[in-house]
Amino acid sequence: MGASSSEAVSPRQAPLGRVYAALFLQVMINSGTYLAGKRAMEELPPITVVLWRFLLCALVFCLLLAFTPGPKLPPRSEWRRVLMLGMLAGPINQMLFFYGLSRSTAAHAALLYALTPLGVYLLSLARGDERPSSRATSGILTAFAGVVVLLLGRGLASARGSLVGDLIILAAVSAWVVYTTEGRPFAAAHGPVRSTAWSMVAATLLLVPVMPFALAPARTFSASLPALGSIAYLAVLTSVVAYLIWYYALTQVSASRVAIFSNLQPAMTAIAAWVLLGESLHWELALGGGLVLAGVRLTQSAPVVPRASPVSSQEQAPVSIAEG
Known about the structure:
Layout: H1 3-7, H2 16-40, H3 46-66, H4 79-102, H5 106-113, H6 116-127, H7 134-152, H8 160-190, H9 192-207, H10 211-214, H11 217-221, H12 225-250, H13 255-262, H14 264-276, H15 283-300, H16 313-316
Helix pairs in contact: 2-5, 2-12, 2-14, 3-4, 3-9, 3-12, 4-8, 4-9, 5-8, 5-14, 5-15, 6-8, 7-15, 8-9
């Protein structure tokens, strides 16, 4: 498959210390995503933040593709899948995520996105790609208990606003789960850089019809430097740098080892939100978060038992299991 097939093979192994240092940087970037989103939405509507994020992200990926040897456009036979992945990643996932984040907290959003590996596992069971295991089932039940504590711990009346936001974020997580699962064979066939770039550019194109009504350039450029910097953070660090680090790590160590690092993200986000945004570290967050992370860890450590013939390790590598 030309240049794209060369991306699908693992390069020379790098020292594990370097790989883990890169993964820790990736976790730090993704942990700041929720805080950057909250800061930008203090001055701009969620849809405006989403539109500018994807515009800048698409520009960076177009420049990246221009300097990457090989095909710049996806094969015609893949256009439908690229549009589907773009729809899931942009108009559905990110719109729901930012609207949910505007009515919830950064710590809650990080915890709920920690459910992504569990959702991928459940979807794999539903599609018949894997057989259930007792350890994975225990992990799912543990994480579900954590979500219940997280959503309802303070009661429906006192947490109504946060509850609505959390439920919207859960819908965004569901879209991300489908994107992750459907993107596996696509990334295996065309390489992570191209598959991510094509889907992100497609997401931006799908958002073009609403740009005349919600891009609000005058209001955006009159926003404060911290708000503009937050949008730049979302577009460049979260959507480009963190993704590239993630795929670099997947070429060096197993996907399960990479995935373990995502468990650090909710705790780092909660601490950063407490320090920078003044969000409380209430007991429901600690208990629910602990259960969610324990459930995710149990599921990630469960053995994969495919129903059909095993796929290659590249096909098993997810597009991403952590939002940004």
